[in-house]
Design a protein that fits this description.
CATH architecture of one domain: 2-Layer Sandwich
Order of helices and strands: HHHHHHEHHEEHEEHE
CATH superfamily of one domain: Reverse transcriptase/Diguanylate cyclase domain
Distance between the termini: 147 Å
Number of helices: 10
Largest sheet: 6 strands, antiparallel
Structural class: alpha+beta
Helix content: 55-70%
Shape: rod-shaped
CATH class of one domain: Alpha Beta
Oligomer: single chain
């Protein structure tokens, strides 16, 4: 009885006529809270039914709470799945971007390597003669300048040797330009084999070559190179079924006495050739 009374006393009620000893001991329900009909119904319930009603209410509340919990749990799980799907999609997107970035980096590295090789090739072409592979005039001037710097630094001398192959124009007229080019290539190889590996050999034009001889000490050094060049370049060379022998003109100039830059040294060597053999037409084919 006391328990039922305590349950009733929990409700904000106003005094009503008691329908039972328990109801009499419990203050009446406030009609403003539950309404007159419901308040009267509760007040009129026997003690056992009231207890059962509260039990049912408690069970309903438990079920309602469980339903709300299940609904909240389901909603939370759905949200977790959505977040997992979003994370998986982001991971897949990040992996795709990483693959694309790696591929792009690889393509850029390949392109950079190709451009580097092309730049080296262009630099070589800009400094080398396309026919013979020897240095061209641009690289020759650079090497002469380098030789001058070394000569000044080490208090040494350097020489520029000029070689004129006479008769190549006549050979081209008689046998064709390709044949004359083959002779030029062969003569370039011979000249390359005469000088030291550190010396520079260049092709100036169709008939003239030059060599930069660094760290020479006297004219005897240059004379030995000139003698070897005259012998090698003056030897007969096969031209188809025949053999051709070209005329060879040689001149040299020393730094610093014959010139102090590339142009002056080359001009001095060319003047020596012209003074020694003014007739430039000389080729024997047979």
């Amino acid at each position: 009885m006391k328990r039922i009374g305590s349950l009733r006393s929990c409700l904000p009620v106003a005094p009503l006529a008691a329908a039972s000893p328990v109801a009499a001991a419990v203050p009446s329900l406030d009609g403003a809270v539950l309404g007159p009909g419901l308040a009267g119904f509760v007040a009129a319930l026997p003690d056992g039914q009231l207890l059962a009603a509260f039990g049912v209410l408690a069970v309903l509340l438990v079920f309602a709470a469980a339903a709300l919990m299940r609904r909240a749990t389901h909603s939370l799980r759905r949200r977790i799945r959505e977040l997992d799907d979003a994370i998986a999609a982001r991971d897949a997107q990040a992996e795709s971007l990483a693959r694309r970035l790696s591929q792009t980096i690889h393509e850029l590295e390949v392109a950079h390597h190709r451009l580097h090789e092309q730049a080296i090739g262009l630099e070589r072409k800009s400094h080398l003669d396309a026919l013979t592979g020897l240095a061209n005039r641009l690289l020759l001037d650079e090497r002469i300048g380098h030789g001058i710097v070394r000569a000044l630094r080490h208090n040494a001398r350097m020489a520029v040797l000029m070689i004129e192959l006479r008769g190549l124009a006549e050979l081209a007229e008689r046998c064709g330009r390709p044949v004359a080019d083959e002779v030029r290539i062969a003569m370039a190889a011979r000249l390359r084999g005469i000088v030291r590996a550190e010396d520079t050999v260049a092709r100036l034009d169709d008939e003239r070559f030059a060599a930069v001889l660094e760290e020479v000490y006297d004219r005897d050094d240059v004379q030995r190179v000139m003698a070897a060049a005259a012998e090698e370049l003056g030897a007969a060379i096969p031209v188809g079924a025949e053999r051709a022998r070209l005329g060879v003109g040689l001149g040299y100039a020393f730094f610093p006495e014959d010139g102090r830059d590339a142009a002056a040294l080359l001009a001095s060597a060319a003047n020596m050739i012209q003074a020694a053999a003014p007739d430039r037409r000389a080729v024997d084919v047979g």
